[in-house]
Specification:
Elements (H helix, E strand, L loop, with lengths): L3 E4 L3 E2 L5 E7 L6 E9 L6 E7 L4 E3 L7 E6 L4 E6 L8 E9 L4 E3 L3 E5 L2
Length: about 120
């Protein structure tokens, strides 16, 4: 079973940038959909951005135009470039993978804190 390891979370000033990465322990070429969700205390986990093997990308309205997802199957990695960060982007960000079978896998999460 594939394991997902996120990195790149940090404390950043409003308006700053971060680049999150998610490395998979094995090939992701068979993973249909891969991307990022985020969660704050007491709230449901919400979609941030995902990309399918076919290149279809979905962004949450709140990050459209500020965040960019990219996926490299040979490198078994998916990135989330986050620009113009806002305090409301503060959350634990989780890497997500969905196989063609429908099985899903989550990473352990990485904390992004946006504060002055």
């Amino acid at each position: 079973q594939v394991q997902l390891v996120e990195s790149g979370g940090d404390l950043v000033l409003p308006g700053g940038s971060l680049n999150l990465s998610c490395a998979a322990s094995q090939s992701i070429s068979s993973i249909y959909n891969m991307g990022w969700y985020r969660q704050t205390p007491g709230e449901r986990r919400e979609l941030v951005a995902t990309e399918t093997t076919g290149g279809t990308i979905t962004y949450a309205d709140s990050v459209q135009g500020r965040f960019t997802i990219s996926r490299d199957n040979p490198k078994r990695t998916v990135w989330l470039q986050m620009n113009s960060l806002k305090p409301e982007d503060t959350a634990v960000y989780y890497c997500y993978a969905e196989a063609y079978s429908g099985k899903t896998k989550w990473g352990q999460g990485t904390l992004v804190a946006v504060s002055s």
